[in-house]
Amino acid sequence: MLFSKIPNIEYDVKPLRFPFSETEYVLAKNFFRKYNIDKTNFESALYFNKYTMTDADRPDLLSQKFYKTTDYDWVILLTNGIINPLFDLPIKEVDLYAFVEEKYGYPDGIHHYETLAVKNSLGEIILKEGLFVDSVFASTTHKFYNRASKSYFTKNGSEISFPVSCYEYEKKLNDERREIYILRPDFVEKFVSQFENTLEYKQSKGYIDRNTKKTGI
User: What is d(CA 18, CA 57) in angstroms, rounded to the nearest whole number?
Assistant: First the structure.
């Protein structure tokens, strides 16, 4: 459905043999025509409902579920910034381990370490939780300043960080991809109208009609 809404462009194709001055045009879809969501209309939670995708979900099935038609699967993709469904949508849980194994070779190997929060005696955070660190940090002793006592104290890296396996890392990313936003049905027509108006060509050089433009190469 989205493919049909992308405007056309006629590319100037010069023949490689005589007559060189002859010009021919090939009609193609203009995938370089960019579209940005109007955030003034669609950034509010008023317009979206948060949804967690399951392994059984697909954009067309979600479109049917929320909009009673499969025609708006592209709306779900576009509003969530999903460019390539093969890579931007979550991997099924049953396939995830094999994906990680192919990518890293050893899914249970350490991908990185993450920090735990370190606080001083005043309860102030002096090391943030969740920072990515390496094995050197995890095996090193670290010195921190306690502002309350005006003194230093030390922590072993193994006390304030923990290893994250390749599988755990990829699973977290995959779970984040499951969290999407569904445009409320009341606003779909407005969104589609805005999308179509934005993609339409305006009167300019090479203009043929609102859906077709001619250009040279």
Answer: 55
| CA–CA separation, 77 and 38 (whole Å) | 16
Closest by CA position to 76, among listed 46, 39, 49: 49
Residue 149 C-beta-side C-alpha neighbours within 13 Å: 10
Q: Which long-range contacts (CB under 8 A, 24 or more apart) does 127-136 make?
A: 127/160, 133/157, 133/161, 135/110
Angle between helices 93-104 and 166-178 (to 10 degrees): 130
Q: Which residue has the tokens 């038609």?
A: 69
Render pLDDT for 86-121 as a digit per residue (tens, 0 to 9): 889 999 999 999 999 999 999 999 999 999 999 998
3-state secondary structure of 178: helix
Q: Answer whether 0.90 is exceeded by the pTM.
A: no
Please report, for residues 36, 45, 194, the alpha-carbon distance to residue 40 in angstroms, rounded to integers and kept in the order given.
11, 12, 12
